[in-house]
Each structure stands twice: as structure tokens, then as C-alpha cells.
Specification:
The complex is a heterodimer of chains A (525) and B (333).
Chain A lengths: L1 H12 L3 H14 L2 H11 L10 H12 L3 H11 L2 H8 L13 H9 L7 H14 L2 H12 L8 H12 L3 H8 L7 H7 L19 E2 L13 E5 L4 E7 L3 E5 L10 H7 L6 E11 L2 E2 L2 H8 L6 H6 L2 E11 L2 E2 L5 H9 L7 E3 L8 H9 L1 H4 L3 E6 L13 E5 L3 E12 L8 E10 L2 E8 L5 H13 L1 E5 L2 E4 L4 E6 L1 E4 L7 E4 L2 E5 L11 H7 L2
Parallel strand pairs in A: 1-11, 7-9
Antiparallel strand pairs in A: 2-10, 3-4, 3-5, 5-6, 5-7, 7-8, 10-11, 12-13, 12-16, 12-17, 13-14, 15-16, 17-20, 18-19
Chain B lengths: L7 E3 L2 E4 L4 E3 L7 E3 L14 E5 L3 H8 L5 E4 L4 E4 L2 E7 L7 E7 L2 E5 L21 E5 L12 H17 L4 E4 L5 H10 L6 E3 L4 H9 L7 E3 L13 E4 L16 E5 L6 H7 L3 E3 L7 H11 L3 E5 L3 H10 L3 E4 L10
Parallel strand pairs in B: 3-4, 4-5, 5-6, 10-11, 11-18, 12-15, 12-16, 13-14, 13-15, 16-17, 18-19
Antiparallel strand pairs in B: 1-2, 2-3, 7-8, 8-9, 9-10
The chains are: A alpha+beta (525), B alpha/beta (333).
The complex binds zinc ion (2 copies).
């Protein structure tokens, strides 16, 4: 427990990736396998199901801290993280009096059994932990009670650390870790075991991701060396046919049951095949807007009406495994040839090459992207292997320039986590008549200096407060970029924008010259 | 504000009508009483200043040699108009004071910036009884509770050792007045090594040495040869030096920030420091509550930062409290 809390503190303190990997290696080397397994589980984003209600935690904190409820809430709003708030408002001890506990033992025998207890019994136990655990451990325990344990460590860093520890290739570790990893000693030992270990038939391969193309495409060499495809805007997924069909999203979530038409079509594929592709809402010859598809993601067993409202297809990009054989090291050209022969052309479609004799031809094709409902082009080197993660060089996304609009800042809210006591979450509005109508929320795009400056301005120009939200004077104009615009009945403006972000602070533009809602509405699909 | 208040707000700053003087005004006035030498409290442009004797060196440095400053010992009463005024130790930085104002038997105290924790660079906070207390509330939330200084010094020394083992410089950002000297003095009780100082700090450290404060020896970074290797050395610099070309001398340095704000993890992460050390020259939450209680004040006005929660908390406990909108804060937390 103490060792894991120390790892957490060390990861939290290091800003460089090499420091982080070193900290992970040190921990994994010294930790018992069952503790290490939990560490892998949490650091790669794994969670345990919620054990206690946030509201109960708050009540227990009110009891032990002897502070009024509103002051606990004010403090939480300021700190931005419930686990940290609890840690700061309970008894401080820099070092622990009690002996070291096994992490896995604590989880199995103390933490998880909480779920079966009534709230009063839970409260007594949790308050006991708050009294006895030293600061760092108390923070980790509170993190576990409130949800995840992410600490700025990417899955890739965990993979690198395990690769260094075991002497195995990162790709192999990554594959062993894909899908759902069960935090047991045995699973950890298999993760770092030498040589071949049979990989679970359920597991997806790690996805290969394209990197954004920032240079001119000519720098990539002759256009003929490259496969150009549309960058479809759906759910990137892996279709696994191994004694049954499984569907995994790029976020490595099981999508089984959500897209029965794809599973049905895939059942006709020969056994031992794994396809990489994109799930798209599709009607006639064209993709449906992402917002339609989004409604289906949450539906575990979609009814006939849902199926009819947003029919889907699997747009296949690649063939990763055929007849049980891993094809990732073969050139893309060969993988694609084999892929074409497998598809039914209806529910399972090939993502066709976009024609263009040279780069300028592709440039022209790319200019039509928005009309086709795609985000640009993906460029893949014809002789590339199927690598892991976002490895630069062979796969690029060549996106079209985003749509932009000049909007007025009207509300601000404090951020979370590392920006918890700055106003960093902004709501922007456009003109409709002489009224400002909110159209987008955006969090990112300003640098720290601008954020601090805007924060001061917001505090000094607040009109009204609604809980954590402040309305501010209409004054500042920002250029926002976004990927798409859809009509939406759920929004006051009648419009929903996709991936809005701040491009720049238009200090040169007076707020009454910001864009009008009609301008945005014309862009809607 | 009420009509017979001893201290009111004017565009120039906090004003005492019965004594015709200002306290830490942000514009030039005829007569200013200064609580201490931080830039948001001690501004130039006034005709005559009153301040604590022990802070004269710093104030003369900040306001210029020609500024007319009258020094007073702590507890010594002087008369301004109808008011009897005295200065009392605030424990914030060298020469920092609270201002006690008495008119017709009514007493107001303006704390200025203050802290309750021990600090080898200044005299401890003096509890002064009053009817109305104007307190700072820079850290006016209960999540701010300062750890014992010796624990923080342990952490600083561990970090310094770790930097030495990894052959990287240890660059600590901290405010040039007060915090830097306090760190040098706290460290002097534990080790005996030379610390390197950013140029903005050296004159201020000298003023503290003039006042016989025992601190680690400091050497200006600028006195070293260009190619000097600072691996394993501790360097103190003001926060404004972070990300400036000056930092190029300390390649691959581990960076830290010493401030009360470092109590919150998000603050450290947002600013991108490797380490955060909780060292504050302001009162923490328990210190604020204790000070209000010990002052005996029935009315409290809060300045600086997050006053809302403190004001509500005090009102709930039967103390009449309100916020006072000043232009203090931001430079020295
Ligand atoms: Zn100050
Ligand atoms: Zn101040």
C-alpha cells in the first residue's frame, strides 16, 4: 500500500516520460505480482465498480471534519477533486504509524467487501481509514473510493515499463494487455512472461493510429507509394472472428450486442480473421452524421426502430489476422488484397482508395471531403506494416481545415483537476437578433498565460453566479474551430457543433461584430 | 461600510477619516501607513510614510532613498489627527506590521498580511484585541492547513539530495522578498552549503543580512562563469524567471515552487513544476479563525482572495463579517 502510494506520488511529481517509466520499472520490479497487477489495472485506466456513494462520502466528511456542508462544497469546488478534498480535510499524518499492507490484500479483504455493507457500516470503516492512513495512502484510498487513479501515465508508458522489465517487445506486451486485463497475480505474470503465451481469443490487437500530417504531402515522396482513403467519422473498431464474433472499439471497449447487423454479417466470414475498420451510420450511398450514430452507442440491444433510424455498416480498412495467422508484419498492399475478397460489399464494405494521380489530384479530392461527410484523407504507405499506437512515419491523417466562427464569451466555470481554481471552461454565444445565444462549450486552446489573464478578467466582470457558473459581460471574442455542425433539438440554438475548440483570442474584434447564428446554421448538415 | 467606521474604502485605498491617513494605498497620498514592503502594499508616490522600524531598510530599498519614511517601534503609539496609531508585529516578513487604530476608545486593527507560524526571519505575530478586525484571507478555505515547517524542510533537503544524485540543478522558484530569505534561514539551521541566487534576490537578501538574520551563504548566479556546471546545486529564483532565457543555464534542472498554493495538487501540475513545497507567509485557515477569535473582534472585514467562504463561516458563528474589496494580493503568496 505504502509502496504503491509512493509510486503514485512519484508519478505525480515527475514531468518527464523517462522519469515516469523509471518509477514504474522500480515499482514493478519490487512489488509482489498481485500488487503489480492492480497497479497495471489502475494505471491503464481500469476501474473498480463504485463502492460507496459520493453523497455518503460527503456526509462522512462533514461528520469527521466538523465543517458545515456548504464549506465542504466550497472547498471541493476550489480543489476540484473529491479524493484530494477529503485528504486535505481529514487528519494529516505525513508518515504512517501502522505496518505496511499488501495492496492486493487491502483491495480484496477490505476495499471490495465495502460494496456489500450498509452505508452506516461503510462509513465507520472509511472514517477509520481516514484516521489511520498517512497522507499519501489516504489520498490513494480516496481515489479508489471515488473512481479512477489516472495520474498522467499513458498506457504506452506502462507498456514501455513492462517491456523494459521483462525484456519483451513492447508490441507483444501491448497485445497481451489489450482487451480487458484481469488484475490477478497470474495475469501479471503472463504479461511479463518470456516467449509466446497463448493470447486470449477475445483480445483485440493494439490499434495502429495515424498521426496528423503537419508538413506538405509532397514531403512524403511520390503519391503512388501511398494509399489514400477517406477519413471516415465513425467508431474505429476491430472485428474479431474467432469461434464467434467480437467487436472492440478503439478505446478497447466491447461493443458486442450494440451492432447486431455487423455481427450477423461477420458470422459469414471464415474463422480466425480480424478486421480493422470503422462503424458508420449509413444510408443509401453516404454516411450519416455522427450524431445519429452516437445515439446507438449506448443501446445494448437496439430495437427495430433504432436499427431503422440509423442503419450501420462496417467500413473495412485492413486485415490484421487471416486464418489464425498474424499479418501485421506483411505489407499493407498484401493485406488489402486479401481483405477485398472477404467483404460482402453491403454491411461489410471496403474503404475504397480515393483516386488522385498525384498530390494535387488528392488535394482536389480532399477539398470535397466535407460534402461527403468525411474529415479528410488518411494516407498509408503501401508497404507499411500494421504497427502499434501512434507511430509516426507510415500512416498520416490529412484533415481538412476545420470550420471556424467568431463567438462571444458569456459564461465561465472553474475547470477540474489541474485547472480547478481557474475559470477555464467557457461557454460561447452567437448573435440572433440582438440576443446572444449559447452555441458551444470549449475548454482548450488558450495558453496558461491567456488563461490566467482571462481568469482575472472573469472574476472582475462577473454579472451573476449560478452555483459554480458565472455569467460575464459580453466583451471578449474568440475564434472557435469545430469539426462539424448538426441540427439538434436538444440545444437552445437548434444546433450542435462537434469538437469545438478555441483557435485564438480575437482581441481585435469588438463583441458586437461576432458572428450570427444564421451563419452557423447554414453550415449544418 | 458604516458612517462612523474608522477605516473606509476610497479610490486611493483604505482610509482612516478621523486620522486623515491611508493604509497601504495603491495611489499616492499625503500620509500612508505601510504594513510591509511587498509591492502590492508598499507603493511609491506618497508624501509621507509611517512604518515599522525593523522594515525601514526594505522599504527604503523599494520606495527609493528619497522617500520620506518615519520609523516606529512595535507597540509605540503615535498620533495622526484624532487617531492614536500603533504598529504590531504581523509575522509575515521582516518588518511587517498590523496597524492598530484607536479613536474615542474604539479600536480597529488592520492585520496587513500575516501568519501565525514561527519564522526565523521576523518577530512572531502579536495578538491585538480590537472591536473591528480587517483581516487578510488569502488562503480562506479549510483545505489550507500548513504542514510543520521542519517536515517541509525535510522534503526540500530530500529533493536537493536527489538532484545531487541525478546530477541536475535544483531550481526553486519562490518570491524574492520574504520567502527566499525564510528558506535560506530555515536551511541554515540544518545544513551549511552555499545557495545560488537569481540577481533579483541578492539586494533583498542583503537587507536581511543587515538586520542580522542568519541565513545560508548565497552567491549570485551571475558571478559564475558561463560554462559553470550547477548540477546538485540549489538555486533560488523568482517565479518570473521560469521559462525565461535565464533558465538556459540550468539545463535539465528539476524545478520546484515554494508557496501556500502548492497545497493543491492541481496548482502544481498546472504550472508544470516538478515539485511543490507548501511554504506560506500567509495565515492558513486555522490561523485565520484563531486570529479572529483571539482578537475578540465583533466585526470582521476580509481582504485578499477567497473572502466569501470566510465571511459566511464567521457570520454563521455570530461574528458580523463582510468582504472589503481591495487591490491587494497576487505577489507574495
Ligand atoms: Zn505580503
Ligand atoms: Zn498582500
Amino acid at each position: 500500500m505504502r509502496a504503491f502510494a509512493a509510486l503514485y506520488a512519484r508519478l505525480d511529481q515527475s514531468t518527464g516520460t523517462s522519469d515516469k517509466v523509471a518509477a514504474l520499472v522500480d515499482y514493478f520490479q519490487a512489488a509482489p505480482a498481485d500488487d503489480a497487477a492492480w497497479a497495471v489495472h489502475w494505471l491503464t485506466g481500469g476501474r473498480i465498480k463504485r463502492l460507496v456513494r459520493a453523497n455518503d462520502l460527503r456526509q462522512w466528511l462533514i461528520d469527521v471534519s466538523a465543517l458545515p456542508d456548504w464549506l465542504i462544497d466550497d472547498t471541493y469546488a476550489h480543489v476540484g477533486d473529491l479524493a484530494e478534498t477529503i485528504t486535505l480535510l481529514t487528519q494529516r499524518h505525513p508518515t504512517a504509524a501502522q505496518p505496511e499492507l499488501s495492496l492486493a490484500g487491502f483491495v480484496a479483504h477490505e476495499l471490495l467487501p465495502l460494496a456489500k455493507l450498509p452505508p452506516d457500516a461503510q462509513g465507520a470503516i472509511v472514517q477509520g481509514w481516514w484516521r489511520t492512513f498517512a497522507d499519501r495512502e489516504r489520498f490513494v484510498v480516496n481515489k479508489l473510493l471515488t473512481g479512477g487513479l489516472r495520474v498522467g501515465v499513458s498506457r504506452l508508458l506502462v507498456v514501455q515499463a513492462l517491456a523494459r522489465l521483462s525484456g519483451q517487445a513492447g508490441d507483444l506486451i501491448s497485445h497481451r494487455l489489450s482487451g480487458d486485463f484481469q488484475p490477478t497475480a497470474q495475469a501479471f505474470q503472463q504479461l511479463v512472461a518470456p516467449g509466446e503465451v497463448a493470447i486470449d481469443a477475445d483480445k483485440p490487437y493494439p490499434f495502429f493510429l495515424a498521426s496528423p500530417l503537419e508538413q506538405a504531402p509532397e514531403s512524403l515522396g511520390p503519391a503512388g507509394d501511398w494509399l489514400a482513403e477517406w477519413k471516415w467519422d465513425g467508431i474505429r473498431a476491430q472485428l474479431i472472428v474467432r469461434d464467434g464474433v467480437r467487436l472492440w472499439s478503439r478505446g478497447e471497449e466491447r461493443l458486442d450486442g450494440r451492432f447486431p447487423e455487423i455481427e450477423r454479417a461477420a458470422a459469414a466470414l471464415p474463422n480466425g480473421h480480424v478486421l480493422d475498420g470503422e462503424i458508420l451510420g449509413w444510408e443509401g450511398d453516404a454516411p450519416l452524421p455522427f450524431s445519429r450514430l452516437q445515439k446507438r452507442i449506448g443501446r445494448l440491444k437496439p430495437g427495430a426502430r433504432t436499427l431503422a433510424e440509423c442503419p450501420v455498416v462496417f467500413m473495412a480498412y485492413d486485415l490484421i489476422e487471416a486464418a489464425g495467422k498474424d499479418l501485421r508484419q506483411q505489407p499493407l498492399r498484401e493485406r488489402r488484397e486479401r481483405l477485398e475478397g472477404l467483404l460482402d460489399g453491403a454491411t461489410l464494405r471496403l474503404s475504397r482508395p480515393v483516386d488522385g494521380a498525384d498530390w494535387s489530384g488528392l488535394q482536389i479530392a480532399r477539398n470535397n471531403a466535407r460534402e461527403l461527410g468525411v474529415e479528410g484523407l488518411i494516407l498509408k504507405r503501401w508497404n507499411s506494416a500494421y504497427a502499434t499506437g501512434r507511430r509516426r512515419g507510415d500512416w498520416w491523417k490529412w484533415k481538412i481545415a476545420p470550420l471556424t466562427i467568431d463567438a462571444v464569451l458569456i459564461y465561465a466555470q472553474a475547470g477540474h483537476g489541474r485547472r480547478s481554481n481557474l475559470y477555464t471552461d467557457y461557454t460561447f454565444a452567437l448573435w440572433q437578433g440582438d440576443e446572444l445565444v449559447p452555441v458551444a462549450k470549449a475548454y482548450s486552446g488558450l495558453n496558461d498565460e491567456e488563461i490566467a489573464k482571462l481568469d482575472r478578467w472573469i472574476r472582475a466582470h462577473t454579472l451573476e453566479r449560478f452555483g459554480p457558473v458565472r455569467s460575464v459581460q459580453a466583451f471578449h471574442v474568440f475564434e472557435l474551430a469545430f469539426e462539424g455542425v448538426n441540427r439538434s433539438s436538444r440545444h437552445k440554438s437548434g444546433i450542435a457543433v462537434r469538437f469545438p475548440r478555441i483557435l485564438r483570442w480575437r482581441t481585435d474584434k469588438p463583441f458586437h461584430e461576432a458572428d450570427r447564428l444564421e451563419t452557423l446554421a447554414k453550415l449544418a448538415q | 461600510m458604516r458612517r462612523d467606521d474608522l477605516v473606509i474604502l476610497r479610490p486611493e485605498g483604505m482610509y482612516c477619516p478621523r486620522g486623515d491617513f491611508y493604509i497601504d494605498p495603491w495611489r499616492g497620498v499625503d500620509c500612508a501607513v505601510l504594513t510591509h514592503g511587498h509591492a502590492d502594499h508598499a507603493r511609491s508616490g506618497s508624501v509621507r510614510y509611517h512604518a515599522a522600524e525593523s522594515g525601514l531598510g526594505l522599504l527604503q530599498h523599494r520606495l527609493g532613498a528619497s522617500a520620506h519614511i518615519v520609523g516606529h517601534g512595535y507597540g509605540e503609539t503615535f498620533v495622526l489627527g484624532d487617531a492614536r496609531v500603533s504598529l504590531h508585529s504581523a509575522g509575515h516578513i521582516l518588518g511587517s506590521s498590523q496597524v492598530r487604530i484607536e479613536v474615542d476608545g474604539e479600536v480597529w486593527v488592520v492585520t496587513g498580511d500575516f501568519k501565525r507560524d514561527a519564522d526565523p526571519t521576523c518577530t512572531p505575530f502579536d495578538v491585538v484585541r480590537c472591536d473591528t478586525l480587517i483581516t487578510e484571507a488569502t488562503f480562506g478555505l479549510p483545505c489550507y492547513r500548513w504542514p510543520a515547517m521542519h517536515e517541509v524542510v525535510d522534503e526540500v533537503l530530500d529533493w536537493w539530495d536527489q538532484c545531487a544524485r541525478e546530477h541536475v540543478p535544483a531550481v526553486m522558484f519562490c518570491y524574492a522578498l520574504g520567502k527566499a530569505q525564510r528558506l535560506l534561514a530555515e536551511l541554515a539551521e540544518r545544513v551549511d552549503r552555499t545557495v545560488f541566487l537569481h540577481g533579483a534576490m541578492t539586494p533583498l537578501v542583503e537587507r536581511y543580512r543587515d538586520a542580522n538574520i542568519r541565513m545560508l551563504p548565497g552567491e549570485p548566479v551571475g558571478d559564475s562563469k558561463r560554462a559553470r556546471d550547477f548540477s546538485g546545486e540549489l538555486i533560488l529564483a523568482p517565479p518570473s524567471a521560469a521559462g525565461s532565457p535565464w533558465m538556459r543555464r540550468f539545463n535539465s534542472a528539476s524545478t520546484a515552487f515554494a508557496s501556500g498554493w502548492m497545497q493543491i495538487r492541481g496548482n502544481r501540475r498546472r504550472r508544470g513544476y516538478d515539485r511543490g513545497f507548501v511554504v506560506s507567509d500567509h495565515s492558513d485557515w486555522p490561523g485565520l479563525i484563531r486570529t479572529v477569535e483571539e482578537s475578540g473582534a465583533r466585526r470582521v472585514l476580509a481582504t485578499h482572495g477567497s473572502t466569501d467562504s470566510l465571511v459566511r463561516y464567521l457570520n454563521d458563528r455570530g461574528v458580523v463579517a463582510a468582504a472589503l474589496k481591495t487591490e491587494f494580493g497576487g505577489d507574495d503568496s
